[in-house]
Amino acid sequence: MRETHLQELYVKGLQLFNREQFYECHDTLEELWLEDSGSDRLFYQGLIQVAVGFYHLTGVKLGAARTMMRMALEKLAHYPPKHRGIQLAEFREQVAAWKRILDEAIALKGDVPKRSFPKIEYDPAEDSSAE
Q: Are 92 and 77 in contact (CB under 8 A)?
């Protein structure tokens, strides 16, 4: 039962991220992170930090957004290209691209260009924890 609950939190968090409900995503994944004691705690924390980074970005807190994305990328680097049903290498690259955009905007004291936020591609068939 507990594993089912954790899996539901995980999927809900990913869905919230993809709907750009970053604060709610953070809350949901934080609940998962607090309840899980396994090897994915750092992974969940990285996802939380990405969500917080985009939340800060929507509030135009560029420095905080960049810091969160940097910390998230450091944590997510510990995981393989595909992890928990996510194309993680591709997602990391999208987050890294946003971090570079923030680096430039902060350095030039400019605006962040309009572009789509990344989406998390999740395939439950590739998520060994979903079984």
A: yes
Specify the 3-state DSSP secondary structure of 78. coil
Kindly report, residue by residue over 88-118, the tens digit of the pLDDT: 999 999 999 999 999 998 898 877 778 889 9
CA atoms within 13 A on the CB side of 34: 6
Confidence of residue 128 (pLDDT cuts 50, 70, 90): confident
Residue 120 and residue 14 in contact, taking contact as beta carbons nearer than 8 Å: yes
Distance CA 19, CA 72 (A): 20
- DSSP conformation letters of 15-47: HHHHTT-HHHHHHHHHHHHHH--STTHHHHHHH
Percent of the chain with pLDDT over 70: 97
pTM of this prediction? 0.93
Q: Judge whether 35 and 50 are in contact, CB under 8 Å.
A: no
Residue with tokens 């991220």: 17
b (16+ CB within 10 A) / e for 96-121: eebbebbeebeeeeeeeeeeeebebe
Contact between 87 and 81 (Cβ < 8 Å): yes
